[in-house]
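Please discuss these two lines.
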Amino acid sequence: MNASYAWLTSLAPVSLTPEAVRDLITARCCTVDEMVRLREDLRDVVIGLVVEAARHPDSDHLWVTKVDAGRGELLDVVCGAPNVTVGRKYPFAPAGSTLPGGLKLERRKIRGAISNGMLCSARELALGEEHDGILELDTAAPPGTPFLAAIPVGDVRFVVDVTPNRPDLLSHLGLAREIAAATGTTVRIPPVPGSAGTSVPAAIAAPRGARAGGVEVTLEDATGCPRYMGVVVRGVTVGPSPAWLAERLTAVGSRPINNVVDVTNYLLHELGQPMHAFDLAALAGQAVVIRTARPGETLTTLDGVARTLDPSMTVIADRDRAQAVGGVMGGASSEVTASTTDIFLEVAYFDPRSIRRTRRALGLSTDASYRFERGVDPELQPMALARAVEMLIAVAGGRVDGAPVDLRPAPAQHRHIALRPARVTRVLGDPVNADEIARLLGAIGFTVTGGADALDVVVPSWRPDVALEADLIEEVARLRGYDALPSDLRPFRLGTVPESAVAVATRRMRERLVAAGLLEARPLPFVKGGAEGFVRVANPIAENEAYLRRDLLDTLARRAEHNLAHMQRDVRLFEVGSAFLPTGDTLPVEELRVAALVMGHRRPPHWTEQRPPDFDEWDAKGLAEEMARVAYPAATIDLRGAAGAHAGGNGARAPETGVLWEIVVDGVVRGVVRRIPLDAPVWAAPAYGVELTLLTIDSAVLAPPGSARYGESSAERRGAVPAIRYRPLPTTPAAEFDLALLVPNDMPAARVEQALRSAAGELLERLTLFDEYRGDAVPAGHRSLAWRLTFRHPERTLREKEIAGRREKLLRTLEGELGVRQRTT
């Protein structure tokens, strides 16, 4: 929807800038996608101050002036206006500017005098017809200020993205309500320019039919049109609209047509109420009938297209034929033209579902159908009709003939919703009392009554989207401002699903390493690699990094070299990420690891010491011990010297691999501490790294059910953080059967279930105990327990013979191992 800044501020009188109004609308109700200044053709014009003025030596009507345009130097400008005065300010277009209409100014000589631009008249700026003198400005803005910033000329158009659930915002009135509620002002309907205050007689209310100014109005299709109002205005003069009306329509992107049609379009944008004016002389029999279309009935609409209608559509007809598609578009035969003198003005409420069906069937979307589809206010019609009549008479003359009609078989019912302030507080996580709720909702038209424990809220007719208590809570949150919602953690969980063990472990690790002064790096897991020992990516981002890394320290080493290249000697980095080890299978082994690299000064320099000591291997060992304790808090941790490493006077000596220690967790090697070889300058300190495995996922975890390796997780084999198992969705049908067994009373059901699982084999997908029975049909000292067994093969459908064989095997196993037999009665 397009909205005009000037129009909005006439309804909600605020002193906000267009930028502030844009931000307010976006924050409170819907996004403003674009803000367009409609007089951008004046963007080159600035405020100019005339400092000197003298007669042109070669002309009796030209002046040679010096103008301060805020450039630090005075500009020579030749001016032909008689009212140029020293010390006064005028619009100034410097050389290189383009004026409205496309005129581009250049530096030129006029009768021998140089002119560096133009002091402009109102006509030259398209601000009026005055052109005998330049436009004198009364402004405190300094010279050089952009004209548009200093003088409030030209409107601003907002392109608003209104969501389907807020049809009330498809009008300036709806947006003005939100602006007024946010700023504490009151919405007012501005007076009609040139109106003497037309008084419209009270409408004749009837369920199905009444007369308006000699026109018989009949409502037959109350389903498609629950409310229909109409009035006759005679003696109008159709012609161009006055400037204020045409400018408002132009500001929202609508093309002025004539004063009568423009009034209906104006009120569509102002109030959100579509309406239609018929040429009364074109209505046969002086009758208006709201009915369904007849089978095969045709109508040529205002766009000149002949359309075939069907009985699902609501039409506005006269005595003989359809004259308009209700709520969508009028007909060409009753269009208001220059010769029209009497009109019948329609203001109605059409059913949204009916309009949607009609619009789709005809492939015809209009501003009217767009609003009716989403829901027009069903109580707006009397006010809209009165304002339309006043505006019509003000711009086109004429008089009202008789009272309007208001046909409505059933009045609309107001929705009441019970709202609990305690529930609002609970949902928003912030105390909100009943008085604040009443104030917030009352500002946008809700009626709130009740006490501190329960409120009764009456929903305004223009808000069809509010139907539940949750909707009201959302409104309270929106009106308070989402920025006002608390950001602190509260002592309750939003869900019951426990956190992943992996997430807990990695979060704990990050917190500990950051506390130790390390910085986290998050590089991509791609390396230069090679054909041997690396996993190649099928579609690499770059050919120079076409392989997946097999350790994290290699990536951190490249980051350390990057720091050294930028003269950064002290490096403390860590990463939590994945390493990939090739296997004979299609998928590699993926290990979640944590790695840390330290080099340079052990701590920041301090005045008490000349130079802090550098990190050494013992610092790396201490860091490794701390990381292992964080990752495996309940395990036995040991750092074992690597093969080929030995201790000397300065500590461990690394073998050719650089490994100093192996990190052993419960007897299994989980990581290493090693010295990192770098492409480093001579002044660089040695680098040490720690790498520790947290989780392993290999192709066994991803194997299909029933395969030899299904469920065989290397994470479980090695005692790492519990692995996440991924199973593909089944593509073959399951086979089920039930077993009712006679089980001794002293035998736990879990023992029988264990035997069933053990004997059923790898194709058992689900085992469910669903029944227990004790009674005369069961031998003494026993009970009947029934299990349902579900089998599924991952690649084919199981045959009946296979299922029967497994059933017999289970029964034999149970009877042989536990003495449990099948119940047959």
Remarks:
- Residues 646-652, 699-723 have pLDDT under 50 and may be disordered.
